[in-house]
Fold this protein.
Amino acid sequence: MEVAASVFVDATLITLVLALAAFGLAIIYGLIGVINMGHGALLTLGAYLTWAATSSGMPFLIAVVMASVGVGFVGLLLEHFLVRHFYDRPFDSLLLTWAFFLIMTEIIKIVFGTDFRNVANPLPGAIDFGAFSVPAYRGAVSLFSLALIGASAYVYFRTSLGIKIRALIQNREMASLLGLNISLTNKLVFVTGATIAGLAGSLLCPMLSIDPYIGNVYLVRSFFVVIVGGLGQLLGGTLIGSFVIGGAETLFSLAFKQTFAQTVVFLLAILILRFRPAGLLGTK
Amino acid sequence: MNMAATTSKPWAGLSNKIASETGVAGIVFMILALIPIFVPGYTTYILPQYMLFGLLAVSLAFLWGFVGILSFGQAAFFAIGAYAMGITMKTSMGINPAYVGLLVSFIIGGGIAAIVGYFLFSAGVRSTYFVLVTLALSIMTEQIAVSQSDITGGWNGMYMDRITLTFFDLGKMVLSDDMSSYYAIFILVIISYLALRYLLSVKFGKVLVGIRENEERMTALGYNVSLYKTSAFALSGAFASFAGALYGSHANFVSPSLGGILFSTEVVVWVAIGGRHSLLGALVGGIIVASISNYLSAWTPEYWQLLLGLIFITVIVFFKGGVAGAVKSLYGLWLERHKR
C-alpha cells in the first residue's frame, strides 16, 4: 500500500514537472505551429541564468524572474530575426530553430564553461503525509505548474486575447481580414512560450546538476508529451502526455535502469504515435 | 511541381544534372586517389575517416534531397554499424569475419531503418514527426550503448582491429597499414556512391523524386508510396551503417557519442552546406567540413561550432541547395552567357 502510494505521488510529481518543461513548447507548437527545436536550449539558458543570478547573491525567486525575462528576450530576438519570416514554411523553421539550438549551446559553453553547476535547493526537506512524503521543493514546483496551466486555461478560454489566439488557429486569413494583427499575436505567443521555457528551466535547475546539454533530453521528451497528448490540445493534452511519458518512466524505472527506462518510454511514445498519429486527445 | 503537364521534362532535367555531376566526381576522386602519394602520414590515416563521414552524408542526402525525408538519426545507424562490426569481429567463425561484419552491419542498419520506416510511413506520420522520431532514435542508441556495458563497453567504448580483406585463393590484403586501408575504403566509398547514384537514375529513383515533389499524385498514380519511402530509408540506413562499420575498424574504436544527438546534427549540417540535392555535394561537404571541424576544434572548438551554426542558418535562409546548388546555378548562368 505504501509503495503504491509513493509510486502514485512520484508519478503525479513527475507528470506536473514534465508538463511545466513541455508547456512552452506546447504553446508555440500548438498555437502557431512552429516546431521549436530551440526549446531545449531555452530551458538550459533559463537554468544557467538562474545559476548566474543566485551565485551572485540574488534571492532565488528574483533569480527565477530575471532568468525567465532574459530567456523571453532571447525568444523575442529569435522570433524577430528568424522565425517570423518562416511561419508558412514549418520545415525551414524547424531547421532554423535547430541552428539556434546549436548556436545557443555554444554560447552557453563559451560564457559558462562545461563544468557541472548546481543551484542550492531553496526549499530543502520534505513534507510528511504519514503514508508518504513529498520533497518540499518538488511539491511546490508541481503546484506552480498546475497553477500555470490553470491560468493559461483562463486566458485561453475567458479573455479577449484567448479569443484572438483561437481565431488565429481556426482561420489565419479570416482573422487577419477581420483586423487581427497576426504578426503581433504570433510574436506574443512565441515570446510567451519562450518565457515559459526559461521559467521551466529556471525552476527545474535546483533539482538537477546543470550542464550545457540538459535541454537535449527534455527537448525530445517535451515533444513526445506534446505529440502523445495531441496537437492543439494545449491544456488537457499537455497533462495527459506528461502523465503517459512521466508516469511510464516512473513505472519502468522500478524494473529497469534509469537510462534504459527512458529508451522504453521513447519506444512507447513511438508506438502511440503510430497508432494515434493525432495524439491521445486529438481528433483527426 | 508541374509533372503532369510535362511528364518527361523534369526527369530529363534530373538525368542531365546527374550527368554534369560525373565530370566533377571524376576530378574529386582523382584528387582523393593522389592524396596519399603526395601527403602521406597523418593525412592518409585520418582522411579515410572523413571519407566515411562523407558516405554518411551521402546516405542522408539520398534521403533528404531526393525523397524529401529528413532524418536526424543517421549517426545512430553509423554507430549501430560500428558496434555490429566490433561484435562480429569478436566472434570467431570459419569465413573471414570482416566480410560477415560488413554484411551484418549493412543488414542490421537497413533492417532497423526498414522496421522504423515501415512502422511510421504506413501510418502516414507527418515528416516533421519523423524528424523527432529519428532524433529519439539517436538518443536511444546512445543510451543503449551506454547502459548495455557488458556488450558495448559503456562509456569506455569498444576497441576493434583493422579488417583483413581476403580474395579467395588470390591472396589477402591486411589493412593494418594506413595506405592499404586508405585505398580499400576509398574504393568502397566510390562503389557505394555509384550504387546510390545508379538507384536514383533508374525508375526507382524517379519515383522517389516524384514522391518528394507531390506525394498525393504519386499515390493517385498507383504507387505504393509508403513502401518506396520505407525502401529509401532502409537503403539510407544500410549505407550509413556500412560506413559506420568501416569507420569502426579503421579508427579501431567506437564510443556511444558516435550515435548521439550532436553527431547526428553534424551530419545534417554537412549535407545542408554541401548541397542536399547532390550526392557528390554531400560527399565533398562531409569530407571538407569534417576536416575543417577537426582542424579548428583542436584550436578553437566553441567558436568553430558557433560559426558552423551561423553558416547553417545562412545556407537555410539563402542557399537552399548548399554549395553544390550554388555552383550548379553559377555554371548554368555561365552556359547561358556563352550560348548567346
